[in-house]
Task: structure prediction
Amino acid sequence: MNSDRLIHSVKTAIAVAIGFSLTRFISFPYAQWVIITIFVVMCAQLYVGSVLQKAYLRFLGTLCGCGIAIIIIEVFHSSLLSVFLSLVIAGFVFSYIATSSKEPLSYFGTLGCVTLAIILLGQKDASLAFAASRFLEISVGIVVATLVSQFVFPIHAKKQLRKNQVETLKQLMDFYTKTLVMDLAKVQTVDHHELDEGIVKLLLKQRQLAKGSEREPFGRAFDVDNFTKSLFCERQILRAIHFMHIAQDKLRSASLSDKMTGLLKVFHEEVLTALDAMAKSTPEKAKSFKLPSLDSIQQLRADNKEMMVLQPILYLDALIFNAEIIVENIALLTKLSTE
Result:
């Protein structure tokens, strides 16, 4: 059982209990909106930052919808024509906003038109009191959800982001082993696409966690620039492994000498050792981090006098070039982890 999901479920239950108690104590006329808001804001949002973002957008959407509804009620007295026109225009404007490529605007746009429709059509005669009650009760639900998320067993995206980065490094190690080390041993039974897809999913998850980390108000400020560079390094390593695998496979088909195979094994072992050390290291340990050496991989070119056929030479150059990319990005990742 996932511990974070279990803790979050307990937190949601606590928030609902608090919200329900408040509705009984204060006697809200439409108490269901407090509980519904807590469910909407918290249920699918595991981390503090994502809950805050969801709460913020729900508040803005509700505020905007309620504001338009109040104008229709007070200025136009909820006439049939004014209600019709406001819903049609809101449907156009909010739908345009909701289909934006920016994910937050999608939720805001949807909530804005839904709130307007509920207030204007939720009763036989729309009233200012109904609009005010909806705004107040949703606001109470938002406050309860955000306070519980932030102060009751908080689950921070920053912490999970580090775990995800460690898992990405481990997956890169596995991918490297199965595409380069095993390939060197002439084992061709690995589904490279499945391994690659798993790493890509982890990288996408990192982007989501980074967004949540930016919104978390307490603790050490999230360094967006540092994260962007780290993510780029991980992607560069993944690409370089792909190209090294192609080049090595072509060279292997051209019959690598025992000496060349030995030099490649030395380099591969050093890269795997470095990736493993990075996954296990802390910022303090990273300062004494040993980078893989390019000596063995560069010696391939120097010792390659006998391989004068054009195509093998091109693949050898590609292999060395991508090996350099891997080493450079491991070095940059190490540097970024200490900043």
Notes: The two ends are 34 Å apart (CA to CA). The mean pLDDT is 85.
